[in-house]
Structures are given as C-alpha cells and as structure tokens.
C-alpha cells in the first residue's frame, strides 16, 4: 500500500484507487491520522478535478476528491458514536456516502463539495444505524425520526445543566419541564418525546411499520433516508 507522508501535495491525491493511499479501517487510529494529514483542495483545484470527472469520467480526479474529504467523514462519524456501533463501520458507511456525493457533484452549482457531501454522508450513516441498532418501530414518522437523532444529545445537555446547578442531582429520565422544552425546540408533541424516551430505553424493535401503522405519516425508516436517485436540493423541496 502506498501512503502519503510529510507535506503531501494535492497532485499526489490524483489516484484511481484512493483506498490505496490510507491504512485499512482495521487499523483505525492509523487511518484517522492519515485522513487528517491529507491536504485540502483549493476551490480551483476542486472545480478542476470535478469537471474532469464529469467530462471524462476520470477516476484519478474522483480519487483526489474522495481523499481530500476523508477527514470530513471522520468528523461527521464522531457525532454518532453514542449509538454503540463500531467507529470504523460508521466511517465506512460515511465513505460510501462521500463516494456517492463525488459521483453526483456539479462544481458549477456554486456549492463546495464539503457542503454537498454532508447530506450523503449523514444519510448513509443514518441508514446503517437504523438497520443495526436495537429498535422496534423507533422512527416510523417524521417526528419520531427527529427525536431519534436528537433526544440523546439533548438529554445529555439537560443532565449537564442539572449537574452544574446541583451536584447531587442524578436522573435518568427527563423532567416534565425538560420534556416540554424538548418538544418546543423540536416542534413535536410532549407525548411523542415521552414515547421516544421509552423506546430508547426499551428492548429490540422493528424497523418497518406494523400493519396497524396505516396513517399518512407512517413509513419505515429506510423510506425517509436519502434516495440515491434524488438530489439534496430536490429532497429539501419535497419535504417543505
């Protein structure tokens, strides 16, 4: 395996197989260290590689775009470590999203790849979590999806605030005021907050709606995750 070391240049990133330039994910610390050392592209370099990829299907240009954004995947993946899934697996799924983004990226739309790729990276990680985490019907509506990916972090924030105010305070469940605050912030019902907290504390669950979930807003988690055929802008418009 060829690896980059020292003061690497963006020219060295132009390789047909980007994974030959970094250690395997089995050696996670070495992989992350290598990803963080890879040089970033300037706007001009990014546009040049992207245009060559679109016009000539140039794999070396694709490799440069992927390699220069591996650190972005590492950064995003850390946001999901609280679900108890292997960090290397989260990075691997995020890398799949990054490659999808690189394939679809249009440099003439006035958006940097770093912004465009975030949608695809998070979508792949979300799908992996929902397929592998121990949940039953945990996110069959938009409100439940919103709670699934925000309740844990917000709950930790409430705990930190409570501990700062009273060192003797230790609660595993949300207080009524915290439930109300979370419901207001996420624009969901208090009952939905309480239901999701119960589900997150419970046992295994299914990923798809049961036959009784026949409401208009009931759907399996995989259905609301990124559609590989739909561009991020179109997806945002369709959800308004």
Note the topology:
Blueprint (H helix, E strand, L loop, with lengths): L27 H10 L5 H14 L2 H9 L2 H8 L9 H18 L8 H20 L9 H7 L2 H15 L10 H11 L3 H12 L19 H4 L7 H7 L2
As for the CATH topology of the largest domain, it is Four Helix Bundle (Hemerythrin (Met), subunit A)
Instruction: Summarize the biggest pleated sheet.
Output: none
Please, what is the average pLDDT? 77
Shape: elongated
First-to-last CA distance: 47 Å
The CATH level-2 architecture of the largest domain is identified as Up-down Bundle
* DSSP, total strands: 0
DSSP helical segment count: 12
Helix content range of the residues, please?
A: 55-70%
Please provide a brief summary of the model.
The chain has 240 residues and is mostly helical. It has helices at 28-37, 43-56, 59-67, 70-77, 87-104, 113-132, 142-148, 151-165, 176-186, 190-201, 221-224, 232-238.
Commentary on this structure:
The protein has two domains: 10-132, Four Helix Bundle (Hemerythrin (Met), subunit A) (Up-down Bundle); 142-238, no CATH class. It is built from twelve helices and no strands. It has helices at 28-37, 43-56, 59-67, 70-77, 87-104, 113-132, 142-148, 151-165, 176-186, 190-201, 221-224, 232-238. It is elongated. The model is unreliable at 1-7 and 203-240 (pLDDT under 50).
Tags for this entry?
mainly alpha; 240 residues; 2 domains; 56% helix; disordered N terminus; single chain; disordered C terminus; 12 helices
């Amino acid at each position: 395996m060829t690896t980059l070391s020292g003061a690497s240049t963006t020219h060295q990133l132009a390789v047909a197989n980007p994974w030959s330039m970094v250690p395997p994910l089995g050696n996670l610390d070495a992989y992350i260290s290598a990803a963080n050392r890879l040089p970033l592209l300037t706007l001009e370099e990014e546009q040049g590689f992207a245009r060559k990829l679109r016009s000539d299907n140039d794999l070396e240009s694709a490799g440069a775009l992927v390699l220069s954004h591996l650190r972005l995947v590492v950064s995003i993946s850390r946001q999901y470590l609280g679900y108890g899934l292997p960090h290397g697996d989260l990075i691997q799924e995020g890398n799949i999203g990054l490659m999808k983004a690189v394939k679809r990226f249009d440099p003439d739309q006035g958006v940097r790849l770093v912004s465009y790729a975030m949608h695809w990276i998070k979508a792949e990680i979300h799908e992996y979590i929902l397929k592998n985490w121990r949940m039953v019907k945990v996110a069959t509506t938009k409100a439940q999806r919103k709670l699934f990916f925000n309740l844990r972090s917000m709950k930790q924030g409430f705990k930190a605030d409570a501990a700062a105010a009273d060192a003797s305070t230790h609660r595993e469940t949300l207080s009524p005021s915290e439930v109300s605050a979370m419901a207001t912030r996420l624009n969901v019902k208090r009952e939905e907050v309480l239901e999701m907290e119960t589900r997150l504390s419970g046992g295994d669950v299914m990923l798809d709606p049961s036959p009784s979930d026949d409401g208009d807003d009931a759907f399996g988690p995989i259905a609301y995750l990124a559609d590989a055929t739909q561009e991020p802008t179109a997806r945002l418009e369709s959800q308004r």
